[in-house]
Amino acid sequence: MILLDTHTWVWFVSNPELLSAKAKQKIDDAVREKAILISSISVWEVALLVARKRLSLTIELDDWIARSEGLPFISFIPIDNQIALKSVQLPPPLHNDPADRIIIASAIKTGATLITKDEKIQRYQGVNTLW
């Protein structure tokens, strides 16, 4: 089971050439196993990036999200009380980006490997990452 960080999800869907070879292989394996998770906070992050014109999609945002939701190998994880609480209780050192903290807490709760290029997250000892 893997969980895609927000940028990994965007790249997987729109620019797979930006993925590392190891990340691409792990994602390809997870596609076959129907074992890809994405935190709902990533939907919020993508919507915010589009609204701020820091991310441009080739189709409307709602359609882009709906297409991802329709993929049979992706499951979205809602932010439940356990994830919300865990995101605040993560031990230091970790930067304070709330979305990253929720993604990390989601990976910990599910036992998933977090696929991320974010070096701060990769250095964090509390979560299994791959890039």
From TrEMBL:
Any single Pfam family the record assigns to this protein: PIN
Coiled coil: none
Residue ranges of domain PIN in the record: 2-125
CDD domains found in the cross-reference section: PIN_Sll0205-like
InterPro entries in the record: PIN-like_dom_sf, PIN_dom, PIN_Sll0205, TA_system_RNase
PANTHER family: RIBONUCLEASE VAPC16-RELATED, RIBONUCLEASE VAPC22
Official protein name in the record: PilT protein-like
